[in-house]
Write a structure and sequence with these properties.
7 strands; 48% helix; Gyrase A, domain 2; Isoleucyl-tRNA Synthetase, Domain 1; alpha/beta; nucleotide-binding; 3 domains; 4-stranded antiparallel β-sheet; EC 6.1.1.19; arginine-tRNA ligase activity
Length: 382
């Protein structure tokens, strides 16, 4: 069950309570489902009872008890605990994340991409400025991943180094035609009608000395209304650099897959939570805490499940920065899991290791796919 599906399940519980007369409220359009905060438990938490308490004219905890009774009888939900003033903490069934991991491994870097194609053509345009061109290039990639047909145009001729170093491409740009172009009319003229012109805040300095990957990240990671920082901080190989964390997390997942193959086992999606419960009794490692791993796997599956929605929002809001920040979130969630993927010493590979490896590989696929849409390389070795 993904967070989106769990949100629908919570709304169904609200609707049943309303239909049965225990709550007199308007059923909201959505229920916010997040990872439990401090003092919470389980896999997900929702504040829907606090949201409905005032319109229902009842204490939040009483509303939570009404919804708790209905959620406990739902397929895929094994436990519901009320904490604080009325937060519902939901524990899902043992196979909650297996289908998600299987889907990601099956689709690979195309996880989150739309299945069909739009019949409409979206014209994008930008001024002749390096950040605007890079943003348009990344946005076009994201839109096409969502099935949108895109035609891009720059309002001036591209600098050759933008193409050679930054790897940008546009479908149309004003340029002096060659004799052959004068004889051969274009087969893809820029579409007439309204177009969306991208005008992010310009780069304060030339990003080309940073190289392709760091330059594109520096221009794409900030929101369009924020001025980007063009500095060597994007090149440092340390934790303070978000781009490094994303690429390092991906490289670690690939290294784990290679090392697992050397040990004679591969990834197999499974019940990661059950494996971690077993580790509470037998794992004596100083650097791997089972409770931290449990929260890590919950965070990972939550963010992986959100990836298709993030891509759709980045396309709808014309905001590649949303995808960049999402990749940082995925990387930060998966890094605590990685030390526990491989067996140590004389320990033999178990279902726990295969399930953790599958989850790590799923996160790696999301990171690689996201970097590709931003036009940034995902190295297998760092």
């Amino acid at each position: 069950m993904t967070p989106v599906e769990l949100s629908r399940t919570v709304l169904c519980a609200v609707r049943r309570a309303v239909d049965e007369g225990e709550l007199r409220v308007v059923v909201p359009e959505r229920a916010l489902v997040t990872v439990p905060g401090p003092g919470g438990c389980g896999d997900y938490a929702t504040n829907i009872a606090l949201q409905l308490a005032r319109p229902a004219g009842q204490p939040p905890r009483h509303v939570a008890e009404i919804l708790q009774a209905r959620l406990l009888g739902t397929d895929g939900v094994t436990d519901v605990v009320i904490t604080g003033p009325g937060f519902l903490n939901i524990t899902l069934g043992d196979t909650a994340s297996v289908a998600l991991v299987e889907e990601i491994l099956r689709r690979g870097i195309r996880y989150g991409h739309a299945q069909g194609r739009s019949v409409d053509l979206l014209p994008l345009a930008c001024p002749r400025e390096v950040r605007a061109v890079v943003v348009m290039d990344a946005l076009a990639r994201i839109l096409r991943s969502q099935g949108v047909a895109v035609h891009t145009r720059c309002e001036g001729e591209l600098a050759p180094e933008w193409v050679d170093i930054l790897g940008v491409r546009v479908d149309d740009q004003p340029a002096r035609p060659t004799p052959r172009q004068r004889q051969t009319p274009s087969t893809a003229p820029y579409p007439a009608g309204p177009r969306h012109t991208l005008r992010p805040l310009p780069a304060p300095a030339d990003p080309l000395p940073l190289g392709r990957d760091a330059a594109r990240w520096a221009l794409l990671h900030p929101a369009g209304h924020d001025r980007p920082r063009i500095a060597d901080e994007h090149l440092v190989q340390r934790e303070s650099n978000p781009l490094f964390r994303v690429r390092y997390a991906y490289a670690r997942t690939r290294a784990l897959s290679r090392n697992a193959a050397d040990l004679g086992f591969d990834a197999e999606p499974g019940d990661v939570r059950q494996d971690l419960r077993q580790d509470v009794r037998r794992d004596v490692r100083q650097d791997v805490r089972p409770d931290a791993l449990h929260h890590s796997t919950t965070h990972i599956t939550t963010h992986l499940a959100a990836h298709p929605r993030v891509l759709a929002q980045a396309a709808a809001h014309r905001a590649p920065d949303r995808l960049a920040r999402h990749l940082v979130t995925v990387a930060d969630a998966v890094l605590p899991l990685l030390p526990a993927v491989l067996p140590r010493g004389a320990e033999k590979p178990s279902a726990a290791h295969r399930a953790r490896l599958a989850l790590a590989e799923a996160a790696g696929a999301v990171l690689a796919g996201g970097l590709s849409l931003l036009g940034i390389d995902a190295p297998e070795h760092i």
